[in-house]
Amino acid sequence: MLDADFFRRWMATTAASVEREAERLTALDSAIGDADHGSNLQRGFTAVRAALEKEAPDTPGAVLVLAGRQLISTVGGASGPLYGTLLRRTGKALGDEAEVSEEELAEALRAGVDGVMALGGAAPGDKTMIDALVPAVDALGEGFAAARAAAEEGAMATVPLQARKGRASYLGERSIGHQDPGATSSALLIASLQEAAEGGR
Length: 201
Ligand code: ADP
Ligand code: MG
Prior knowledge:
Layout: E1 2-3, H1 4-32, H2 37-55, H3 60-74, H4 79-94, E2 99-100, H5 102-120, H6 130-139, H7 144-156, H8 181-199
Antiparallel strand pairs: 1-2
Helix pairs in contact: 1-2, 1-3, 1-8, 2-3, 3-4, 4-5, 5-6, 6-7, 6-8, 7-8
Bound molecules: adenosine-5'-diphosphate (ADP) and magnesium ion (MG).
């Protein structure tokens, strides 16, 4: 079972890997966007970390709802409301149980990803974070390692796609040949799930 500590570790691990990969995320966004994805997420997850330390929410759902709220209020770019919605919706779907199963997390994350698609209007193949998140959720039933592999594969598979949503879509065909920054950061978020699970053992 996964408790609030697991979810706090998930957010802390994501914050650390965003910190570590910020330059790469910004470089990817400079090719097909406005070169702020790394700094956007760094600002957001720094706020998430601070809020979790200050408020110490004690259920899985409350951890994610608080994290999502921080992302929405601190990240200026498109990715803030989208990631904020992902975490908030997932958190709401987890309810106020003290512990949740991996199956319940998979189901809740599915609701979160549906929320991102409803808000941003992107579908799989549009070269967005959805291209990493949907395969990850599909694979989550087979465990965190499978979800991580699926997310990383999904992010790499954005390279040959033409962007149909977000800033990169303004480039039309010139968006082809570059990995999507949001799909890349989504792969970090999913990889952090596995790290959080290992950290608890
Ligand atoms: P901005 O585009 O406002 O500068 P960021 O650079 O932080 O915001 O985030 C860009 C990423 O957001 C893209 O790489 C893409 O993955 C994701 N994104 C943008 N628009 C959408 C959308 N409508 N649906 C899903 N993801 C999106
Ligand atoms: Mg940007």
